[in-house]
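Structural biology now treats backbone shape like a language. To illustrate, our science desk offers a sequence and the tokens encoding its fold:
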Amino acid sequence: MASAKILEAKQKVIDEIKKHVEDSNSIVLFDYRGITDSEAKELRHALKDAGADYKVYKNTLMARAFNDLNLDMNEALTGPSAFAYSEDQIAPIKVLSKFAQDHPALILKLGMVDGEIADQAKLKEYATIPSRDGLLTMLAGGMIGLVRDLSICLDLYAEQKNEKE
């Protein structure tokens, strides 16, 4: 049987994983086999720029943390797995998907966005969603179009009123 110190250290790691899951709006499990150290650094910087991060934990410790949180994500815990997390729902998925296109060794396994489990197909779908800034730009463009149309209508109405007088 493991000593109390080892069990305590493992429990700290499990608590850390649980805290990341509870504090994050999205998590992604991915297979990192085959990427080099420099590619891993590149990935870490890309994730950090997007407000996300990743860590590598033992699958058994991740499984215990997920079981404690009643999450059914154990099927993705075969082979080496890394754990990306972020407060942004889409950012880590977009970064990992883009990185996987350039580095086919990286494979997205499973994710969770706002408490819902997302399989590989769902993760690909999420990766195509524009960023928050892109969506806000689209919204602003639509609103500007409405205001412009309203101002044209009011101008035409004012001209029509002036012609009648």
